[in-house]
Amino acid sequence: MRITVASEPGRADRENEDFAGAVPGAALVVDGATAPPGVASGCVHSVAWYARTLGGLLLGTVTDLRLSLAEALELAIAQVGRIHSGGCDLGSPHSPSATLAIARARGGLLEYLVLCDSTVLLDHRDGTAEAVTDDRLDLLRPRIATPPEGADPLAYERLGPVERFAAHRNRPGGFWVAAADPLAARQALTGAVPLDELRSVSLLTDGATRLADLFATLSWPDLRTILTTDGPAGLIRRTRKTEAATPPASGKPSDDATALHWPLTG
After folding, report:
1. Which of 122-126, 145-149, 173-177 has the lowest mean pLDDT?
2. 27/204 Cα distance (integer angstroms)
3. pTM of the entire structure?
4. How far is CA 214 from CA 12, 87, 209, 254, in A?
5. Distance between CA atoms of 42 and 35, rounded to whole angstroms?
6. What's the CA gap between 193 and 189, in Å, rounded?
7. What backbone torsions phi and psi does residue 224 show, to the nearest 5 degrees?
8. C-alpha 132 chain-centroid distance
């Protein structure tokens, strides 16, 4: 099992809120969801703490091959919740959260799980590259003016953009992330591919997929090629150059970026 990883904060003066790790037969990346400025999370722990703690515990639960990836994630979320439930308001819609992607080899299959906007990039032996990501957050954006089911429409209308997104977090019809509720794991996208159909798998936080899904300067096969030839560090270097030359029209000028590349042959 040969895995290469690169991870870099979006800004040199801020802590990296991503996490990546691997154990024999499995790998994962976790992307902590940065809290908007001035928004109280109700938690004494940082987003980076949450991402590292969840990722570390998840590396343990995915080794239990009796568990599905969703069950392993559910167990890890519950474990993190027990660690910081005493002095933290886990009921806050702004409590620390994270998106993630997992890959695991089991029984001749490459199993994968994606929750929110991290990506699993499957490199098929036939030369195709398949990106698996959870786009429910993006699908919510054009209809954010509509309150979630059961919400008071008048109260919702008075909310700002940040609070509106928070009201849809881990709600039916909204988007799902790892946070306080372990049952969010059951909403993750999961799948499996025969190992002998794949050359490699890559796990990417959204800061490392910008060339394909934000700037649209590269295709997913192009991204796969960079990961194969230049490695995760090469992909991040190229992303930073593009961000510096052409800052995105909206969102962060530069984001925490983590890429993990796992060759499955040779």
Report:
1. 145-149
2. 11
3. 0.94
4. 22, 38, 8, 11
5. 11
6. 14
7. -60, -40
8. 11
CA 257 to centroid of chain Cα atoms: 11
Report the C-alpha gap between 210 and 206 in whole angstroms. 7
**Each residue of 20-35: pLDDT tens digit?**
999 999 999 999 987 7
What's the CA gap between 160 and 95, in Å, rounded?
Answer: 17
Superfamily of domain 4-134+176-263: PPM-type phosphatase domain (3.60.40.10)
CA atoms within a 13 Å half-sphere pointing along the CA-CB vector of 2 = 8
Q: Would you state the structure tokens that stand for residue 5, as one six-digit string? A: 């990883």
d(CA 262, CA 216): 24
Residue extents of the structural domains in the chain: 4-134+176-263
Residue with token string 């593009």: 242
Quickly state the pLDDT bin for 266 (edges 50, 70, 90). low
Residues, the chain, total?
266
pLDDT tens digit string along 157-209?
A: 888 888 888 888 899 988 999 998 999 999 999 999 999 999 999 999 999 99
- Which residues are paired to 191 by β-bridges? 112
